[in-house]
Amino acid sequence: MYPPEIIKPMREELSSVGFKECFDAESVKEALKLPGTTLIMVNSVCGCAAANARPGAKLSLKNERKPDNLITVFAGVDKEATAEARNQMVPFPPSSPSIGLFKDGELVHMLERHHIEGRNSSMIADNLINAYNTHC
User: What range defines the domain where residue 61 resides?
Assistant: First the structure.
């Protein structure tokens, strides 16, 4: 578990652009019952999350087409919510950061950590925008 003061700015980076934070498994399940598309970001303190994933996710939202719902869980902090988000992302192995796009509760696009590492925020945003333009 990380101290709240360390993760607060990392949480706010996403919540400030409309991501709803999920703290338990039930809130993740409820989010996936919402109609339309839902983007789930597994946030983390990992350097690639700070340098690439969060900024890439934010940048992707400037696209005309975007998910109807945005949620985030924080790996290592919101353990129950993170476990449920990862459960919904099967068959992909758990990784953080990671980003999954769901349409009517079904996973339709996945960015695992290895898709994020070594890529800048623009590349991550472009990947997500392509998924939005296909599924949203």
Answer: 4-135
